[in-house]
Amino acid sequence: MADDGLVTVASAYTARETMERLLASIKAHNMTVFARIDHAAGAASAGLPLRPTAVVLFGNPKGGTALMQDRQTAGIDLPLKALIWEDEAGKTRLSYNDPQWIAQRHGLGAHSAGPVAAMTKALQEIVAAATS
Hints:
single chain, alpha+beta, TATA-Binding Protein, 6-stranded antiparallel beta sheet, 5 helices
């Protein structure tokens, strides 16, 4: 499902398993994990409840740089991000920004079409490996 550029996919696994599978898939695609943010742990440290919610920032500088060379403002949406979260029913979801939406948002030119298509394909493969 896509909502204003946000793609959300149901996972067949727990949040923890989905995270492990996501990290393995990112590595298998020769991408770099730049950061992991555990929002649930942050909430717990403030004494607040939050279902499993974590973000992974990852990518390939070669691909992302091409988009920023076109429009530097694309850097606000890069590196790529994946949000793993558990909904109210206990179902794990994985959400990410559609690279086509990023391209549209920043008015990227035709010469960015190749890198955007490659990014889209890689994200779809990574997410499928993590969730199914």
